[in-house]
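Aim 2 progress update. The chain analyzed this quarter is reproduced below.
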Amino acid sequence: MARPRERGAVMRRGSLFALLTALLTALAVAPCTLTAADLTVLEEGSPAHFTGLGNEALMEGRYEIAVSLYNKALTQDDDYVSARFNMGLAWQRLGEVGKARAAYEAVLAKQGNHAPSLANLAWLEWQHRDYDAAAVHYSEASRHAATRPREQADYLYALGAVRDAQGRSLDARRAYEQALAADPQHVAARFNLGTLMLGPLAGTPSALAVARENLEQAVALESTRVDAWLNLSLCREQQDDATGAETALDRAIAVATGDDLPRALWRRARWYERQVPARRIAMRSDLEACLAQAPDFPDANGELGAYLFAIGDYDRAINHLDREVTKANDQRTAADREAHFLLAEIYSEHRPDAGKALLHAAAAHHTDEDPRLRELHRRVDRLLEPRTSADHPVSNNKDN
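Predicted structure tokens:
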């Protein structure tokens, strides 16, 4: 029997670009990484002297001082490219985008093939969603870095991310593949290419095979990359490789730390639920572990509450379902509507409370026709009917 596929399990575009933003931030810094040679102090008062002092300040986060020192170097020699470029980076760190851009453009006016300046201009354009301009500058940077394969791979990877942001998936794939041709060990390009083939390009020939190959190489290069393990698990699941999928999920949890851990536990819990037959005890354990790490993890309280409802543990179900739909967490998603529906069921049948039943029944309503809602409203209406003296009081004891 074919297993249902998990919708939205691949890193969604927004999530993917949050990751890319972090990576591209590092990329913007990487071209001006300061070496020991950069810090060598030459003749006192020379451009090299002031630039070296500026570099020290830059690395220590004293950006205003760095700008001042670079200005002193440029007063001595207006053509001193390293001072001009690093001053642009200092302005960038200070949030002075216009001044950073002017510094990079001044470098390019004197040295048009300065790839790091092109890349940092592209990063600024990326930040302002000027994707076409960013793509042009990343392409130029990669061309000028042709003799430096690792640097070139960074620029091509960034170009792929830009094309991905534009929804130009085929162009993104081409850029990632070019990055890997320059540097086969570029783990971010491996991850993005694999994820692209698992998501937007899933319908292309051999997509799953290409996705699996690149995600497996990504985790081989960087075994702590949680998202690569999670997407590799989904890829293996879609290839009906249950053992491989579970192994990848186990690895994701083993290496996860911080916010990654509840996310990995959540993904494995959902995987257990999709198995035929569903492995609900294991699912429950992962949901509990997920909530122990992140008590308000989206949808996890609703899932655990639904499980507890199914086994008749209504009091614990109420606790988790209520938490799923508190004012702070209630996003009116399908999971939230289901939580409201189950709460209405509980308060109409198992822990009768007409007011709460009506409240949750109304919140469970949505535009799709759902026959369960008609039956639920019938029960709530019955609960609200006036009672005669012959009616027996409703017991609040637990169901037997």
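The radius of gyration is 28 Å. The chain has a mean pLDDT of 85. These observations will guide the mutagenesis experiments scheduled for the next reporting period.
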